[in-house]
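Long-time lurker. I teach an intro course on protein structure, and each term I like to show students one example going from raw sequence to a predicted 3D structure in token notation. This year I'd like something fresh instead of my usual example. Would anyone be willing to generate the tokens for the chain below so I can use it in lecture? Attribution to the forum is fine with me.
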Amino acid sequence: MKKPYHHGNLRAALLEAARARLAEGAEATLSLRDLAARVGVSVNATYRHFDNKEALLMELAAEGFDALRAGMLGAVAKLGTAEPIERLHAAGEAYVHFAHQDRALFQLMFGREGRFAEYERFRRAAETAFAVVVEGVAAVQEVAMDDPSATKAAIAAWSLVHGFAILSLGGYLEALPEDRRPTVREVVKMLEVRLA
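-- Reply from a regular --
Happy to contribute to a lecture. Here you go:
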């Protein structure tokens, strides 16, 4: 039987299928043909939305940064009028939570040096996620967001939280005795020292 060409929302269905495929640990074997089969359309139908596999992965990674940004902003919003450092801590915890919640997507977002460098949509999504950190740091330092010191400190803050996420995802911290293993909260509280 011939596979249909049309689908209710094929773009979203392909992205969802790709995300599921990544969760299975199968990026290397992921293909538009495979995804088309998963959603029940012809492979030609996939090209109406994505030029190739990399374009699809770029969009998926960009959506990951959108979700990361939303998660950090949501965690900050829950604190209302809390002190800026507490809000920054909440963003850091949300970051690590996101990494653990969708490991495969997180790895795709940060997986290969320069992989998505030519995709403006990806760059824009990554930059707006980073802006949440810059804004939080600027509030702590009581400087404008465009102050170079805010950007530098935001990179330090991001590095600390991202490094912890990578170590915890990789199982490296499990080798330590439990009383020497920091919690996410303990790590993000170290941001106060970094920004002092």
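Some talking points for your students: The CA atoms of residues 12 and 159 lie 32 Å apart. DSSP finds ten helices and no strands in the chain.
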